[in-house]
Amino acid sequence: MRTRVALAALLASTVGGCASRSLDLEKLSSPSDEIVWQAGQAALEGKDWENARQYFRRIIDAFPQSQYQPEARIALADSYAQAGGAGNYILAISAYREFLTLYPSHPRAAYAQYQAAEGYYEQKNSPDRDQTATLQALEEYQRLLDVYPDSEFVEPARERVRDCRQTLARSDFMVGYFYQRTRKAYRAAIARYEGLLRDYPDYAQIDEVIFRLAESLAAAGRFAEARPQIGRLLAEHPSSEFVDDARKLLAQIPEMATPAAPANPAAAEPAPPAPTTPAAPDDGPPVEIRPEDSPSPYVGRGQGWGVDAGCSQRSLSIPVSRERQGPMPTALPLPLPQVSL
Length: 341
Description:
Blueprint: H1 2-18, H2 25-28, H3 33-45, H4 49-62, H5 69-83, H6 86-102, H7 109-121, H8 132-147, H9 154-183, H10 186-199, H11 206-219, H12 223-236, H13 243-257, H14 265-268, E1 287-289, E2 298-301, E3 304-307, E4 316-318, H15 322-325
Antiparallel strand pairs: 1-4, 2-3
Helix pairs in contact: 1-6, 3-4, 4-5, 5-6, 6-7, 7-8, 8-9, 9-10, 10-11, 11-12, 11-13, 12-13
């Protein structure tokens, strides 16, 4: 921001210096702030911008306690604003903001706020170009309405707010229309139109926005959403120039929206497949482990191992999955430690 202001100051001083008259050094160096102030006022009225700025800067720098200190800052900002040009508007906005920082409750604070907004407004572009300056102007006007609601600049600020909103709305519409007609990007166009209806319901050509939204929805196959928009246009804007086209579009929607019914509905839908139960994995036959295959006196009993004390020998069957383990012998030796009883 400082670099931008410095460049603007250089440009403004270069342009203003070409048309500047000779500076009265005697008045500029006067020890009286009133003399310097009167000389600056005379230069400002004569549109001698550069010399006027010299006098006002003299008061700001050399007379910090002067009664003309606030007025000199306003006059310095006015010299940039009245000179015009992009560079001068930037410097004017900076000077007005500096005044508002130092004197937020001054009787001329509302004027400074309004002029800062005007500096942005003078830089705003047409709807088909960048709208950054328009957005900044709208923000500054809105700040005036919020902070200084009783000032004499409220009504002019409201007019500017309406004008800025119309420009921003028109810009959004042009982007949406470009997506719709040139790119055939209906989804992007729908998003633009819906945002415009939400953010700028006071747009002067809102009937066209509703119609273009209905067109885009129909072209995107969203017929159920297109119908209410057409109904809204017919109900809210019966004298719109798009009413006839909207009725034609509405007459075409049922044909596009209703799919052809099959001759035999029963044959059109295949019967669902019967549910199948997955087959259990084949774990193979169980492998029998016989006690006589092991030298141990321990034999299998249920889920654990016990000592066979003269009881009849029993065998233990353990199922083993062939799929996971592969082929296995019919009997597994169980080498168990000898236990003396």
